[in-house]
Amino acid sequence: MFTGLMASITVMDQEQAQDWYTKVFERDPDATPMPGLLEWHFGGEFGVQVWAEPQRAGYSTAVIGESDLDVLADRLSAAGIDHGGPQSGGGQRILQIADPDGNRIVFSGK
């Protein structure tokens, strides 16, 4: 039985990624378990890992559930993070953003 999930996102520049993801998640990383790895934990066994792997950067996608996409969209806009606003997608609403390397983060919810 599966008990958790860590989405992995690969980036070129760890410092730039840390600044950007800190704005998105509204806090610093919860852990830096090894050089080149940042982690944000959102529940018991759920989170996002950001890896500095220049040769693989920009090809990741993570889908994250969000309880209020309108509030998130406003907060991201205030933080200077571009997006197209919430839209219909797959039977629910989604809000898509891209990090500086082009990795896609899709928030889904209401």
Automatic annotation (TrEMBL):
<feature type="domain" description="VOC">
    <location>
        <begin position="1"/>
        <end position="110"/>
    </location>
</feature>
<keyword id="KW-0560">Oxidoreductase</keyword>
<dbReference type="GO" id="GO:0051213">
    <property type="term" value="F:dioxygenase activity"/>
</dbReference>
<dbReference type="InterPro" id="IPR037523">
    <property type="entry name" value="VOC_core"/>
</dbReference>
<dbReference type="InterPro" id="IPR029068">
    <property type="entry name" value="Glyas_Bleomycin-R_OHBP_Dase"/>
</dbReference>
<protein>
    <submittedName>
        <fullName>Glyoxalase/bleomycin resistance protein/dioxygenase</fullName>
    </submittedName>
</protein>
<keyword id="KW-0223">Dioxygenase</keyword>
